[in-house]
Amino acid sequence: MNILYDYWCLFVIPFLYGMMLFIxxxxxxxxxxxxxxxxxxxxxxxxxxxxTLTRFFSVLLMPLIGFMVDKNYQxxxxxxxxxxxxxxVFILGLIVFFCRKKICFFYINFIKKYINxxxxxxxxxxxxxxxxxxxxxxxxxxxxxxxxxxxxxxIYAIHALGVFVTFYFALISPDxxxxxxxxxxxxxxxxxxxxxxxxxPALSVAIEKRTNFxxxxxxxxxxxxxxxxxxxxxxxxxxxxITQ
Length: 244
Description:
By secondary structure, the chain is mainly α. Helices cover 82% and strands 0% of the residues. It has 10 helices and no strands. The longest helix is centred in the last third of the chain and has 33 residues, at 177-209. The relative contact order is 0.13.
């Protein structure tokens, strides 16, 4: 029990961070479902609705990371916490990847029932009984778009590392921790702007033209997995080694 009490951060923070990204991963397949049944507007709205659930976890996550800084946790413990978080997200991302067709069918049924007059909650629970009479074979036949992959790796690496890196520097530079932690919002805002002005519009254009959307979408998804498996852990470890 003492281990759980002393090292709660190695369990709680990865869980909160992982669930936040897990919901985000799942929500993105709403647009894929909308693409297959040509209901793009409602699919995009449903994605945003699902995405708002991540706020619950982020609201809990940020104060706990700040608590680690205020309590002057050892940098090695902070490193382990962050690396664990990244790899937990990677595992959850793999689960979403392998279940992508089931998730897509769920959203297709959700959209169909909601359009037919069922309420949001009723549509949600009735959609677990999957109707698979839709052709989504394109989810198994796509090519990786290198351009989308590279751009997405850059953007999502900033997004993944931003908060953890700034709080890490606040941990090792306690005299300036207030100023440093405030920069996390700036970094996240920069990554969000790149997502808003680059990735999201590109996907919307691909949907409207109905050309290469699945390839573009899956290239971005692969990029996120690559970031959490390799880029983010390696970058954070290098920063840790340089500063110790």
